Amino acid sequence: MPPKPKLAVWKFASCDGCQLSLLDCEDELLAIADAVEIANFAEATRHFEPGPYDLSLVEGSITTPHDATRIREVRAQSRRLITIGACATAGGIQALRNFRDVREMASVVYASPQYIDTLATSTPISDHVKVDFELRGCPINKRQLLEVILAFLHRRKPLVSAESVCVECKLRGNVCVMTAHGTPCLGPVTHAGCGAICPAYDRGCHGCFGPKETPNTAALAAQWKTLGASPAEISRAFRSFNGYAEAFRIESLRHE
After folding, report:
1. Is-cis flag, bond preceding 52, omega within 30?
2. Distance (Å, whole) CA 194 – CA 141
C-alpha cells in the first residue's frame, strides 16, 4: 500500500480561527485523517513528522524577521502550499499597521519598544513565497477548505466560486440592504463564501472574504456617497479584515 500524503498545518501571525475551521469539520476531519497523514498540526496535536510535505496549509501573516525566514523553510519542504484566511492572503487585521509608522505605534503600546523585533509591515504569504492557492475568509468556510484539500489530493482545480456576496444574497432570498434600507454594504465587491450572513440580518457586508475578482470599488464608493457616507467612513469600511488587499487598499487611500 502506498504511503498516505503528508499534510502539514502552519501558523504565523493570526488568531488561529482558520485552523479551528478545520477542527470544526468534525466528522469530515475523520475522513481527512484517514486519507492523509497529519504530519504537523500544533492546534490539534503535539505529534510532529519532519518533511517533505505533500500539502501545507498556512494561516497567518508575516510580521517578524523570524516569520520571513520560517515561511521560506516551510515552502522548501512543501510540494503544494495553500494559504488560508485573511491574514495569510491579505495581511489580516494586523496589516492596518501598514498605513502608519509601526515604530511610533510600538512606542505608545510598549514600555520598552527597543525589545520589539518586528517588520515595518504585516504582509500576506504570497509576498514572500510562491503560493499554489489562496482560500479567503475571516474565518474561512470549512466546506471550501474541504473542497480545496480534496482537489489538491486528487490533482484537480478547486471548485471555489469567484462570485460576489450579492449572488449569495440572491440564492438566499435576501432583500438588498442597500436598495431597500440605504445601508452601505461591501457585498458587490466582496468574494462569496460566508453565505451572506450579515445581509440576512439586515446588516451590510463587512468584506470578510476580501475583494472578488475585478471588483468595481470606485463605483461602490460613489454609491455609498449618495447614501450619505463620508470619505472617512468609506476609507474605514475598506480597512477591515482585508484592508491591505490591493483593491481595498487602493480604494481606502482614495478617500483619506
Report:
1. yes
2. 7
Residue 117, C-alpha cell as written in the block: 523585533
Per-residue b/e over 106-121, b at no fewer than 16 CB within 10 Å?
beeeeeeeeeeebbeb
Number of Cβ within 10 Å of residue 183's Cβ equals: 16
Alpha helical stretches, state H, the chain: 17-23, 27-35, 65-77, 86-90, 102-109, 142-153, 165-172, 177-181, 197-200, 217-226, 231-238, 246-254
Q: Hey, what's the cell of 113?
A: 519598544
Contact 218, 144 (CB under 8 A): no
Place domain 6-153 in its CATH homologous superfamily. Answer: NADH:ubiquinone oxidoreductase-like, 20kDa subunit (3.40.50.700)
Question: Which pLDDT tens digit goes with each residue over 109-167?
Answer: 899 999 999 999 999 999 999 999 999 999 999 999 999 999 998 889 999 988 999 99
**pTM (2 decimals)?**
0.92
